[in-house]
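Researcher: If only I could read backbone structure tokens as easily as an amino acid sequence. Walk me, if you will, through where the backbone shape changes along the chain. I have put the entry right below:
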Amino acid sequence: MLVAMAVALGLDSAPSHAQDGARPNIVFLLTDDLGPGDIGCYGGKIAATPNIDRMAREGTKFAQYYAAAPICSASRCGLITGNFPARWWITSYLQTRQGNRACEMADFLDPQAPSLPRILKASGYATAHVGKWHLGGGRDVDNAPKFAAYGYDEGVGTWESPEPHPDITATDWIWSDKDKVKRWERTGFFVDKTLDFLQRHSNQPCFVNLWLDDPHTPWVPGPEELPKGATRQRLKRVLEQNDVEIGRLLDGVPQNTLVIFASDNGPAPTFQQERTQGQRGSKLSLYEGGINMPLIAWWPGKTPAGRFDKTTVLGGVDMLPTLCAIAGAKLPAEIDLDGEDLSAAFFGRQAQRKQPLMWEYGRNDKSFSYPGEPKNRSPHLAVRAGRWKLIVNADGAQRELYDLETDPQETTNLGTSQHEVANQLSDQVLKWRNSLPKFEAALRTTR
């Protein structure tokens, strides 16, 4: 078998471990539609981001972190469940019941799915969700489970959640000028709620999902007039405001706190790929610009300071087993995960995954959105194994193979010259796609 395939399929990852001493608080800070070109420590030039840069300087950043999907709901499903989101019939953004059916999706995340907060709560953590949810609720979906069904002690949700907070949902929409907390004040509001929760539960370890709205469009940096639309000036202001609030979070968390900084999927618009740092693709694409995202682990005294890990391939689905290992939380015996414990990488040690990462986006051309730039629209299945990444349609057409070690911008399709690798990966991802649970089961689960 090829060496690359052996690496992807046969090597053991570093052993699971919990750290000595008191268990840490864990804050998972998820930004929305942020690309590597949006922050300074990844080479971005759009805005000054000194506080996020501080996280990288005092912690460890990763070059090969992959969101579970190129779109919000599915990406978040992967973080919560440790599963590829198609397992739970979530492959796009959750919307109206009719729209969900057209995409062959459930109306909300099945509460029977594995749940990171539920596992941490069972091990003694206080748990909270603060910010954007987008895993059920809003529009005409009025039966989505409450936050407690997933293991949260408290929930502060936006409009696209089962429990929208009244201060940010004055109307029946995602945001409005009637909200008590204005659009440009939301990140500060969410940081306040997070710090308050940590303070009120200082007698036990805490886990908080701090999931921001920004920098998802529309960019509303303040009440003053700026040029209308998705302008670079507006984005710059939003990024700078976010960075200030992230600095306030870092200064306010207790000493023994791990803060994870990541993005749910690639940016849109890309400004001629500036926001993807030249990577092909964007939000709604399985090219690198849609799924290869920033990841920073900040835990002073624990995560190696100033380290840039360019070799560990981490996925959003790995967060459940990885954070449980760090927290010393035992995984239920019956749990079936796609993610792996790669916690060793957070402490400067080698960690190598056993199994490849898989993606699906775009089951049909009518109900899914795609990038406006033709070169950024990808086939709708992808697999990453070792240095290789293959993208292909479900019928086997439009097969593309890239060597990401030598061609991270995915410019040269090696499907012909590396025929054996392409065949193996194509067979693997198509077999996986055909093994997914049928959509009819989702209807029974979420009616």
